[in-house]
Amino acid sequence: MTADSxxxxxxxxxxxxxxxxxxxxxxxxxxxxxSRRLAKQFDVVVLAPHAPGAKTRxxxxxxxxxxxxxxxxxxxxxxxxxxxxxxxxxxxxxYLLVPLFTAAEFISLIRLLRQSxxxxxxxxxxxPQGLVALAARLFSIEKPVIVCTSHGGDLFGLSxxxxxxxxxxxxxxxxxxxxxxxxxxxxxxTLADRHDLEVIPMGVDLAHRFTPLPxxxxxxxxxxFAGRLVEKxxxxxxxxxxxxxxxxxxxxxxxxxxxxxxxxxLEKLAFATGVAGHIRFLGxxxxxxxRTLYRRAAVFVAPSVVARGGDQEGLGLVFVEALGCxxxxxxxxxxxxxxxxxxGVTGLICKQKDSADLGRKVLTLLDDPIQRAKLGAAGxxxxxxxxxxxxxxxxxxxxIDALLQRQPASx
Length: 411
Description:
This protein is α/β, with parallel strands linked by helices. It has two domains: 11-203 and 388-406, Glycogen Phosphorylase B (Rossmann fold, 3-Layer(aba) Sandwich); 222-384, Rossmann fold. It is 39% helix and 16% strand. It is built from 14 helices and 14 strands. The strands form two sheets. It has an eight-stranded mixed β-sheet with strand order 3-4-2-1-5-6-7-8, sandwiched between helices. The longest helix has 19 residues, at 97-115. The N and C termini lie close together (10 Å).
């Protein structure tokens, strides 16, 4: 096992394409939240892509963050704002940025590996981060252990013979692969014939942030969706269910919190179905403000689907956030979601792409406040034991430490 000569602690380099660009950024903060907790035991360095308005190097939340440039500032639009997959679907010209992005990340990682000793690399997403980490290790004098975490879209959504072969090679060669749900573990094991995978979800602050009010007083006719407005979120099926819901509950309101390439199409669908007056598109919401929406909503609905191309939820932390606030949940019947939603126990499950079934399940909860409260309370207990950040971070600390303990000592 090796350790940094100044602090006496092992150094972990976090390689990611999603990280807050500045204070108050609306990007998903899960990589940052895990990294800052890992920093209690390790010296953590983060390498993430640059974006216009962000600093190339800074101390962010006590973490040394390096951001690599991969094109002219105004052309750096491959990462962030929905992630790489969403940006590729939004504009096919973004494919031209992929080799530039990968090369810049590789060169930056090589530079960091040569500047200071790195004992472990934690790469988030198989492609490109897992691939880049493996390639860079070939050129490193020290051979850091590599932990790669797949979050779902990279495993399910990157299809075709070539990409499947690349994923298979990465899964087999990293020292440890972690996935965020049991459904992903099953798929990854089948893809690459590797069965020593670890299922460790990303976490949620269930102790301080996503908590219920002492006396939950929800708006009885308020439905909430929160997430990116992309195909795999299935928001169109929720809008198509609204006429049925409005007929029974004329005062109902659906709040849609989030941005994405499908917003305009969804707004048109709301008008076409005659329910636009019952739907409010809130746009992107600050992460710190989501708690208020969860606490107020009667029902949180996530009608996720398998998108064209195979992309689907890897887990869905919005379910955990909602249940952490004691909000009852209706979710689609997707394999990864079953780690959080147990039908009739921690929420209600509806058929995928079935607006009628979705509408019936939502009405069941709107009509029954006692069942809503029961599901919300049971859901809170379920996620608190499995998804709190301190529990998740400790599992990662133990995993990385165990891998380092197995490494031969440096001369």
